[in-house]
Amino acid sequence: MGRWCLAMLAGCFSLAAAAVEVRDVRLWRAPDHTRIVFDLTAPAQHKLIVLSSPSRIVLDVQDTRLAADLAGLKLDDTPVARVRSGIRDGDDLRVVFDVSAEVDPRSFALRANEQAGDRLVLDLYDKRTQVATVKKSVDQSARRDIIIAIDAGHGGEDPGALGPRRVREKDVVLSIAKELKALFDRDRGFAPTMIRTGDYYVSLKGRRDLARKRQADLFVSIHADAFRRSEANGASVYALSTSGATSTAAKYLAQRENAADLVGGVRLSDKDDVLAGVLADLSMTSTLDTSLKLGDRVLRNMDNVARLHKKRVEQAGFAVLKSPDIPSILVETGFISNPQEASRLATRSYQKKMAAAIHRGIRDWFLAHPPSGTLVAWQKQQGGQEYIIARGDTLSGIAHRFSVSLADLKSYNSINGSKIMVGQKLTIPKS
Fold it and tell me: What are phi and psi of 398, to 5 degrees?
């Protein structure tokens, strides 16, 4: 009898030890939803319950105990007013979210992978939220702005690559993206829009969808590279490949960037099942050609700021670039896995220089090849196109860019000598 009791007790202790633990809980606020992520020691079954009077969202997690602190969650600017937890049916965890506004809750589990462990994700989507959109503005003369969709890679629970001294890719690229937006905000005829405005995750498909919803003329995704060897260095520009990658490094990078959804977390229904149809779209040929040529213009401007990893635009199967009708490029601003480049990437001065180089490349392309119906296209037709001097510009370089003589450019703008200032406005004479 004694042996049987001891065996039963040992079994009970074994079961208790086998219970899943919630090791950490993280909360991220996005423009249209709030995400709560539970880090688990193993997979666990869960059930989502919605209760009213008062409004509550309940998560019941089977055979799980809480080993994390819920009190530290920052609930400001979220619909969650309070979080409580308790045990039900002996060993199941119940987490209750008191909500102060109407939400559409969705939950899903993520199995462990090479980048992250098992997780349970709860998304609380806002109701009656006006999602920020940018529409192609049309004035009386139908001269709209050129819309640049600026995508800062990674975000939220997905930090991207990690460099020395905990330099995080998601922070670096968001800073560069904001600098790039500020530059385009000052350009007449351009309307920049940010895909990610803060520290939260957007799925790869979601980034493309936002660019298309905002009717973008260009999608530029900004990243900071990483490689197994710390000596790898240099900036790069990538476009989509409908076949194989142009190099082993491009293939490796695409695989790493495409794995972001495994870390950031997307539901199965969010996955893109129409890739074959997208790549079969006839418009893809033209879009890819523009992406490669525009990317080359950006790459040449980056050559003045950083060492280039490759002297040409490379191609690989980047999921974030798979829009059939929007020219799309991915800019790797340097190797955050390289100690020297990580140090530079973390500084405001280098971020500004990199943003300025990307800005010049994009702006130069669209000034030379403006979409029809835009203000820039109209100005080009009139031969009185306005140009704003950017850092690094020279009069001879501007004259070459617009195929006008240096003498005509100076004469048209009443300029003596060669001195110009950043922010100064020039009118480009008709060539």
Answer: -65, -40
